[in-house]
Amino acid sequence: MHLHLTKFLLTKTLRLVLLVAAVASLSFVLVSRSPIDPVDAYVGAAIMKISPEQREMIRERWGLDQPPLARFARWAAQLARGDLGVSTIFNEPVTSVIAKRFITSLWLMALAWSFSGLLGFVLGLIAGAREDSPADRLIRLYAYTMAATPTFWVGMMLLMVFSVYLGWTPVCCAWPPGLSIEQATLGQRLHHLLLPALTLSLIGVAQITLHTRQKTVEAMHSDYAIFARAQGESTLGIVCRQVLRNVALPAVTLQFASLGELFGGAVLAEQVFSYPGLGRATVEAGIRGDVPLLLGIVLFSTVFVFTGNTVADLLYRLVDPRMGEGQGGTA
Amino acid sequence: MLSVYDLSISFSRYSFGLKKREVRAIEDLYLQVSAGQIMAVIGQSGAGKSLLAHALLGILPRHALLTGSLFFKGRPLTEQRLAELRGREIALIPQSITSLNPLLRVGAQVARAARLSGVGKKEVRQAVQRAFARYGLKDDVASLFPHQLSGGMARRVLTATATVGRADLIVADEPVNGLDAPTARETLAHLRELADDGKGVLLITHDIEAALQVADKVTVFWAGTTLEVAAADDFREGGRLQHPYTRALWNALPANAFLSARQPALTPPGSPGCPFRLCCARQDSLCAERAPKLRNAGQGMVRCHHA
Amino acid sequence: MTTRLFFPSQWDRRTRTLAAISICLVFFAVIFIAAWLYGDQGQVTELDLRKLPPSWERPFGTDWLGRDMLARTLKGIRISLGVGLTAATCSACIALLLGLGAALLGRTVDRLVTWLADAALATPHLVLLILISFACGGGARGVIIAVAASHWPALTRIIRAEVLQLRSADYVKLARQLGKGPYWIARRHLLPHVAPQFLVGLLLLFPHAILHSAGLTFLGFGMPPHTPAIGVLLAESMRYLSMGLWWLAVAPGLILIVSVLAFDVLGNNVRALLDPKTLRE
Questions:
Q1: Residue B193: is it exposed, middle or buried by C-beta count within 10 angstroms (0-12/13-18/19+)?
Q2: Interval A303-318: pLDDT, tens
Q3: What pLDDT, on a 0 to 100 scale, did the predictor assign at position A43?
Q4: For C15, nearest residue in chain B (alpha carbons)
């Protein structure tokens, strides 16, 4: 079993390396084609005051005067060393920018992920087990409507109701403005997390509910569920004993595979609440032409999503007894 | 023990463009099973026979419409009564291994079946051990998962789930489908044992030769209805068979090929005349006008104007 | 979707489905006609009518420049729908070509397409959108290209799977052995199966495309500031939220949601019509 595990991890690492290489190349190509001149974007409002010679100097320093292939080679070499370059917006190494901002986003994503996962699973089970009941219809109505609602609009509505009208929650940021990150207390951080996390959760629940419901319906109509009923099992019994574990496995897999969507939602939620996370950094990098940061975030998020999918895969292999070596399932 | 009169099962099917069509899978079915007897229901492969099994357990899909009367041990078998009796007095041996949950060990599944059929908590372990032993399954089989079982072992586990309790009527749905000859013989022998123990066994299959090995009586099922009810001995001899279809079946036995009467499974309800007339050599205007009713004839029953 | 909730219960499934489809189509027609009728009224600034909440004359109120929000919203939804539909159609066509190519043009093409699809799905969707939008320099064109270039993987896989399955179907093999040319086979056998999948896939792409392009525009990657695309309307309204001008955000958002829902309902009902196996009644 350990041999299988090692082999699995090695294969996955290899695939990750290849994937990163592929994504890096593709992104580099895309970014080089951009009509946005990074120097102009960097200089921004001061463009009037900068002389052409100074612009040339900046271009040289960034290596932008070199042909594309040379630039790519330089960047790839840097990448292999683990160096993602320096962000032009923050004037810090990209790695440290990503690290700091990712931690901030992690609070948000972890909260929303857990909450929407749990609630979505429960709602999906209820809806699927009692197909076409009023509860099912209500849950489906909620889920379909939420799936059609833009994340940022939900954020804005919540912001209006709870922060502007009721004044219960803050209007922006991850901690009270004016304080530094070390000064902010846990309570304050959680207070600021409430609305963004709620926004992400409300949308996330919808997707997970729909998928769980579908799996539950399939399971309820499966041969083994029908046979259980033939043996005299009640609906509740069928749900708890037969369907639950058969649905839990794909549900958990889906949870881990949904990290990509979660990240996307975080980008929008952070924008609405001015939450200084990685999502916001991505947007700024894109708008202000910070190429190193943008590329760094693309690569980082790819690794993030890949990790999520790998964990999902691993869990499946460990828990499903049909996967040969598994020791899962209970008697 | 079990009596079924005029059973009809239909449901709607949607085709391209959401056009609705009503499909009558079973129409005017007649069936009787007595204690200590194996009644074989033989018919061509198709959805009808499994539907019958499911109807007897009350596990038809929600959208199926059932009419007719069922009686079990003298009392009417309503939906409510069926819900109480499922698994306790009436047990199903399903067709395929997919009826077992792939994520649970088989021992646990048989144990659950025992519990559901009324076996007390303390006696479950013993009951499962007894059931396993009876069918020649070693104790360590209990900790296996369904996909780890061989075909024969799977069959025996499925039989064990039905017999671990005290059910009096066993409904076996295609028990020998796809099995090799020795395993098939063994499975049929188990069913014979159950009947000899005093239980009623309903054996649903398309394999006549297999059925004839152990059956006491035979109900011939075609186009969703009962064509003839005969003693198994009549079948073995052939002379006393009455319906033209049954005679043709018998004629075709050694080659084990059916009469090429394509089953009109999608007959719209209400078409007049005998459903078999288009394939029958003896049909005439009476057959086109009126559908024959099942009537007593000789030692059994037959649905034909001219038998 | 549960159309049963909204229609008389005597109507059978076919009638309800057709009714749902018709209502959606009528809804879109109304929007486009209304937008056309209102024309450019949303550009007219009336400084003494600024920041008015909704009223009978102005059902959606006015913004900080006194512009009528109903007119702006209608034009906005028309723009957003236009962008979304264009992007979705391009995406679906790309998906069709790639899917067919992968299934019919041999293993190397198949491998290439699958690899490309996997790479596209490896990055979070919005990050990919931002990247491509940046690469195209922003603007409406950038948004369309970005959305078109990132939505094709799922549909490609479906079409590829369908065609592969058809290729190995007995009747297709038979047709080939009987000497029928590839175009004949494509027309008689492949088309009837792929066309419905394509149509349904296209319809179901619309909601995603519309939402994603609205998101991109909201973040600032799309149109120039005063174009009333829904994303822009919502982004601009953020500034006035704390002042209590709720109608600037609620109305455009609701229209967007209803439009997306309408496409969802349309897509699902068309799918039910063309492939009733997905039903159970």
A1: middle
A2: 999 988 888 888 887 7
A3: 65
A4: B18
Tell me: pLDDT of B268 over 60: no
Is pLDDT at A38 greater than 80 in this prediction?
A: no
Chain C nearest C-alpha distance from A13 (Å): 15
Q: State the total domains in chain C.
A: 1
Residue to mutate among B84, B99, B166, B174, with most A CBs inside 10 A, is B99
Burial class of residue C122 (count of CB atoms within 10 Å of its CB; 0-12, 13-18, 19+): buried
Res. B278: pLDDT tops 70 = no
Q: For the segment B93-144, what is each residue's pLDDT rounded down to a tens digit?
A: 988 888 998 888 888 899 998 888 888 888 888 888 888 888 888 888 888 8
Rounded CA-CA distance B80/C195 in Å is 47
Distance of CA A252 to the CA centre of its chain: 15
Tokens standing for residue B121: 């908590």
Higher pLDDT, A56 or A267: A267
* Residue type at B5 in one-letter notation: Y
Residue C149 included in any domain = yes
Residue B27's identity, in one-letter code, is: E
Q: Which pLDDT does position C2 carry in this prediction? A: 54
Output the six-digit token pair for A166: 């009721």
Q: B13: nearest CA in chain C? A: C281
Residue of B60, B79, B101 to mutate, testing the A interface (most A Cβ within 10 Å of its Cβ):
B101
Residue B104 near residue B157 (C-beta atoms within 8 A): no
What are the residue ranges of CATH 3.40.50.300 in chain B? 2-89+167-302
Tokens standing for B132?
Answer: 């396993």
Report the SS3 class of residue B15.
Answer: strand
DSSP C242: T
What is residue B266's predicted lDDT score, i.e. its pLDDT? Answer: 37
B63 in contact with C, Cβ within 8 Å: yes
Question: What is the DSSP secondary structure assignment for residue B303, as one 8-state letter?
Answer: -
Say which amino acid occupies A43: V
User: Which of A102, A152, A159, A288 has the highest number of chain C CBs within 10 A, making it the mutation to test binding with C?
Assistant: A152
Within a domain: C27 = no
Nearest to B103 among A227, A230, A321 (CB): A321
Domain limits for position C229: 32-38+59-279
Contact A223 B161 (CB under 8 A): no
Q: Does C2 reside within a domain?
A: no
Q: What is the CATH number of the domain that holds C131?
A: 1.10.3720.10
Question: Does the structure show a pLDDT above 50 at A331?
Answer: no
Count chain B–chain C contacts defined by CB atoms under 8 A: 25
Q: Is residue C178 part of a domain?
A: yes
Q: What is the model's pLDDT at position B130?
A: 87
Fold assignment, B2-89+167-302 = Rossmann fold (3.40.50)
Q: Report pTM.
A: 0.83
Calculate the CA A268 to chain-centre distance: 11
Label residue A328 by pLDDT band (50, 70, 90). Answer: very low
C-beta atoms of A148 and C242 within 8 A? no
